[in-house]
Amino acid sequence: MSKPVFRDAVAADIAAILALSDAGRPAGAAPVTSDAGDPAYAAALNRIAADPNNRLIVMERGGEIVGTLQITLIPGLTRCGLTRGLLENIHVRPDCRGQGLGSALVGWAIGQCRDAGCGLIQLTSDKRRPDAHRFYGSLGFEATHEGFKLVL
Fold first, then answer.
1. 26: pLDDT strictly greater than 90
2. Cα gap 31→33, rounded to integer Å
3. Strands (E), 12-94
4. What's the burial of 15, exposed, middle or buried (CB within 10 Å: 0-12/13-18/19+)?
């Protein structure tokens, strides 16, 4: 197996990222994405790329996209101005799970957050994904808070 490569996403990656996101949804959950050619996705990628506190990452192995995540740096006031790293939309292609790629992806992102001066990394995971929760726990993440969302 070739070593994974991590890079910032480009417009040509949108369909693969959306497919990974939908494949990672809990069993029975409806997909949340629509046509990858919708200009809204390219506009969203452009907003992410233009923001120095955000990176949308793809992980490739053998020239194929096998994982993705977004890193957001959140400057804070509390804890003496602690910067937090937020990892979002973390997904590995289902047929590639169990091969250490998720650990490589999250480990790489932790290194990026550390290099950016983060003192804490946080993430959310759907309550209906117990396998993902065990995975994050195996990497040292603790379920210390209850998350809330409000769809607008």
1. no
2. 6
3. 54-61, 64-74, 83-92
4. middle
Nearest of 67, 145, 73, 54 to residue 103 by alpha carbon: 67
pTM: 0.93
Gap between the Cα atoms of 56 and 63, Å rounded: 18
Helices (H), 3-38: 14-23
Length of the chain: 152
Q: HSE on the CB side for 103, CA within 13 Å?
A: 10
Write phi, then psi, for 17 (nearest 5 degrees).
-65, -45
CA distance linking residue 84 with residue 40, whole number of Å: 28
CA angle 116, 93, 125 (to 5 degrees): 60
> What separation, in Å, do the N-terminal and C-terminal C-alpha atoms of the chain show?
43
Residue ranges and CATH numbers for the domains of the chain are 5-138 (3.40.630.30)
34 phi and psi angles, rounded to 5 deg: -120, -155
3-state secondary structure of 148: coil
Tell me the mean pLDDT in the region 11-25: 92
